[in-house]
Write a sequence for this structure.
């Protein structure tokens, strides 16, 4: 269901907004809904609609829905905010600069958007293995999304899933329904995924768990034919015959394009927030997985909540700006 930015046409449009929301995941939609309810003119710019949920299957822990397909949840989020007239653009913001007391953002298509406040809800970007063969075979056996690509491996003799988190577990479980054999390769001795997901993988008869092991090379001619792996404890190297490699090693922050504003991040690159999701840059707020808040517990519900709080923060900030401009006011709200 991945709705990624396709072929780009230059738009060169100019849009004015109260709040510019960067992102298309749960945090961005949470921020958009609450911004709209505060009667702020909100614009959402999302490189992909859905964010990480594009890689998820069924969601079972979002209150009010015992089970819902991630794609359906995303569709509902979007429909809900659009019912308030929020503009959702599918594009990537490539730069955000100061303009007066506010901001001006430029997108990849050339659209300029000015805003009094910005909410950064850009989530995390995929990690790559960085081994020989990985780049060459993307789309020819190398995949970063089990949910999207598992069905292509129906009746495959063997595939490998690399990783030890929730995505890797979900990927291995799903792939075990398609491929005859699944190697689940993890560089550590134990998984950091939710125990319930680990148990599910262990219950599958055709998943071989390969711990303390890294992939050192992806091999093939026209498409993937195998991988080289090395056991980190024994140093033993071996080759596994697989036609698919699913790299599910998680995500990392990428705030490079807004760093020029002096945005403060922690040692791992997560945006530091305080209070109502304020960053150290006046008028800029952050929400969701990209923040340093509640590390180790990043979920749809926490992202939506942070988005809502960020919108509240932006509202207070914009109201404060208005008061400052009112003669005789101290600007305190
Ligand atoms: C496989 C998988 C399964 C999961 N299952 C669950 C589950 O069952 N329950 C649960 O609660 N959570 C689950 N999660 C976690 C949950 O999906 C995340 O916590 C949540 O999506 C984070 O939301 P977010 O909005 O902060 O970021 P993301 O979802 O990462 O969204 C970030 C968005 O920002 C966009 N973006 C990035 N840079 C730019 C830019 N420069 N300009 C414009 N847009 C940009 C991206 O395209 C994306 O749309 C799962 C995650 C994965 C990967």
């Amino acid at each position: 269901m991945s709705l990624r930015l396709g072929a780009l046409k230059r738009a060169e449009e100019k849009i004015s907004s109260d709040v510019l929301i960067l992102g298309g995941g749960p945090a961005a939609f949470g921020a958009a809904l609450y911004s709209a309810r505060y009667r702020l003119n909100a614009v959402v710019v999302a490189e992909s609609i859905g964010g990480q949920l594009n890689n998820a299957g069924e969601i079972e822990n979002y209150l009010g829905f015992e089970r819902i397909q991630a794609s359906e949840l995303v569709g509902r989020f979007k429909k809900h905010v659009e019912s308030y007239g929020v503009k959702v653009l599918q594009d990537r913001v490539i730069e955000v600069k100061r303009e007066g007391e506010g901001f001006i953002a430029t997108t990849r298509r050339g659209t300029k958007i000015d805003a009094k406040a910005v909410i950064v809800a850009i989530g995390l970007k995929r990690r790559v293995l960085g081994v020989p063969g990985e780049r060459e075979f993307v789309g020819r056996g190398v995949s970063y999304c089990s949910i999207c690509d598992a069905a292509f491996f129906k009746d495959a003799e063997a595939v490998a899933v690399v990783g030890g988190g929730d995505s890797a577990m979900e990927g291995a479980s799903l792939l075990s329904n398609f491929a005859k054999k699944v190697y689940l390769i993890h560089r550590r001795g134990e998984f950091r995924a939710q125990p319930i997901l680990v148990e599910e993988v262990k219950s599958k008869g055709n998943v071989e768990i390969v711990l303390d092991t890294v992939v050192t090379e992806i091999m093939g001619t026209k498409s993937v034919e195998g991988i080289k792996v090395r056991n980190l404890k024994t140093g033993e190297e071996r080759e596994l015959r697989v036609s698919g490699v699913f790299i599910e090693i998680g995500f990392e922050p990428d705030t490079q394009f807004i760093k020029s504003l002096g945005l403060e991040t922690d040692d791992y690159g997560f945006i530091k927030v305080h209070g109502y999701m304020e960053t150290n840059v006046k008028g800029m707020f952050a929400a969701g997985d990209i923040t340093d808040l509640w590390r180790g517990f990043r979920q749809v519900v926490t992202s939506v909540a942070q988005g809502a709080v960020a919108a509240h923060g932006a509202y207070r900030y914009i109201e404060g700006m208005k008061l400052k401009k009112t003669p005789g006011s101290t600007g305190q709200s």
User: Anything to note?
Assistant: The mean pLDDT is 92. The radius of gyration is 22 Å.
